[in-house]
Predict the 3D structure of the following.
Amino acid sequence: MSRFYRRPITTPAAGRAVRNEVRPFVSLLSDFGARDPSAAIMRGVVLAIAPDALVVDVSHEVDKFAVKDGALLLWCALPYLPVGAHVAVIDPGVGTERYGIAVEVARGDVLVGPDNGLLLRAADRLGGILRAHLLENGQYRLPVVTSSFHGRDLFAPAAAHIALGVPIEAMGRPLDPTRLVRLAWPEAEILDGELVTAIVYLDTFGNVKLEGSVQHLIDALGPMEYGDPLELRLGGRERPVPVVWAETFGRVEPGQPLLYEDSYGRLCLAANQGSAVARLRLQDGQSVSIQRA
Amino acid sequence: MSRFYRRPITTPAAGRAVRNEVRPFVSLLSDFGARDPSAAIMRGVVLAIAPDALVVDVSHEVDKFAVKDGALLLWCALPYLPVGAHVAVIDPGVGTERYGIAVEVARGDVLVGPDNGLLLRAADRLGGILRAHLLENGQYRLPVVTSSFHGRDLFAPAAAHIALGVPIEAMGRPLDPTRLVRLAWPEAEILDGELVTAIVYLDTFGNVKLEGSVQHLIDALGPMEYGDPLELRLGGRERPVPVVWAETFGRVEPGQPLLYEDSYGRLCLAANQGSAVARLRLQDGQSVSIQRA
Amino acid sequence: MSRFYRRPITTPAAGRAVRNEVRPFVSLLSDFGARDPSAAIMRGVVLAIAPDALVVDVSHEVDKFAVKDGALLLWCALPYLPVGAHVAVIDPGVGTERYGIAVEVARGDVLVGPDNGLLLRAADRLGGILRAHLLENGQYRLPVVTSSFHGRDLFAPAAAHIALGVPIEAMGRPLDPTRLVRLAWPEAEILDGELVTAIVYLDTFGNVKLEGSVQHLIDALGPMEYGDPLELRLGGRERPVPVVWAETFGRVEPGQPLLYEDSYGRLCLAANQGSAVARLRLQDGQSVSIQRA
């Protein structure tokens, strides 16, 4: 019986009505791209092992090799997905000494992928890591493991078996969760009248996610009112950029930039019906200092 | 029990054999893009509420903010999907005063999304609107409704509950269907020996959908035979463009332009194995006058 | 009852545990693109006929009209998918005299699509063709068959009915499998100390699949050791290109090119964390000669 059968769901999506899950659940995220067959092959591998599984693609269009982007997307998405086994493959080190791991978190999910930091921000957000194991048991992988497609040969089969109820300790030896590889990640720094942070994701609208929450902003600048004028200093740029603290896009003129709290509670830069990335020439990783104008 | 259980299906796809539907059905369309996690999150939200739901993505790659394109894609797709709840989110006004609505149509479907005209052409095509209600009941949304992601917080949960059998009057107050926001949309104008129309969609092949049907063309130009030479006058362009009225792409030389009846009964401009958009430098909204050569 | 119910699965993905399939299975591949509604419409048509079907998208982002690319992607993917009915539509000849066909293969699958060579490499890889039939029976298509969307009107309905258990001989007259249209395809040629082959696919990472396997390479150059230096001569290029025979990407410096055995057993050119296509300016169909440096 699936480890995820009849498990009460506590995602925000389930809202008030706690209910029972009825099928093993597997999600997939990768940088494989929608054109190539790799994503469908992972889905096929899961379904060949767990034919009743409900399989959801989180994204296969993550920028190539962008482990940080993948980590952020998992952080955004997994709280809204059913409890299940989540495969993530952004894996420039495939076939080298980096480990394949399964990580069980407090919400009950198991995250499966490379030990390169991809899984850990989402794991923290799902309540933290209970335990981590190596993927080394030949029973839960394909008969041949190639050196370039662990998503198919190692991660998808492990996740399918885990979704069917195989405990993660059957996958291989335990790993000390504190020894797992962690990504370098910027932190929001609260100064006197200034929040110093950095860009962590550029989305397909040209909106830009910053590290940090509204609480960070309030701690740095004091209570905020919609309409408050602010000034951004962007790394590598001379001139400060004026923006408005706004509730949502349509509260400023089309094309105008705004700073707002995105739907995940993050600080975010956008332009109404336009691209903040293009308008302000923003770059991933760029430092951003926020002060009152 | 789902409102869509055991409902006889009358889509063209079901053909002769009327049969019973067995699972709640939800479709999703948006401009969220395949890279970002938003589409998967809407799917997760539906599945958390309606774990047995069959969820189909219509498209998440609609051009950003292109409400008209989304309206046309829904018009094309929904007649071929099972009867169900259909979420559509192209929503530049998210978080402002525009309403969130649920619209029930004669075929039995419920369309859910913003009141910005996105839903109405498809609603007309599914037999017309029976009734429309506001999405204002807190029971059928996520516990927190943010100002920038109503797809997740409002529309997906409403659709999931509706697919499970909640009647749309439970969503909120009724709206007069004639007061819903309608998009400006070009009309095909029949003159003496001339059909004046406009481009309404550029597809990924570079084919171009015009407003109007073959009947419009016949009413303007008289009976049509495959091979008839025609002349197009394009808005903002001096020189007329010669095209042939043809049954399908392969009936003209590779690269040559043709006017044909597309698979939805619309007039369409294409180039055999090439892009009519690139070849004829066509633009969305451009006026097109069709005469015999 | 579905022809695919309770059929023992022998895909590599099922690994050791032979098991029973529980739902009709349909896969979809096309060049329709993720933005347009065509792929979702094919899925809707399948579900309207076979509501219990499990439908998996292989890819809808195949380059427009690239029949060869589609053939290669099917060859890669189908062995890892459950046994089922597989629809493939890359069909520049839609609406002309080319046939619509259903091809049954030794593994038990049925491939459905145009008779333009798209299906045959995958058919060979699934054990070879047992029989082929025309799609001409009006019972297994939509009521109206247009001249430009056979994926919706002809192929998807046929596949759905086949997945539900309709035998392929009910589709129409038999065709001699040796008379089906075959694609021109390069062959790997083993010379004395030289393997002459060609590029057959450029993937989204910028990796490049060559025709031929490691065995071809060994037959031409003798036993291979990881780290062996090689020299490529590319069609239309003067200067030879040095590469290393390597186990996987991470075995060479970032940006450096390598030749390796890909996860399907093919020879493949790549650059570690970069694009071999961009770095070496490679083109589809280009000839490649491999010698020792």
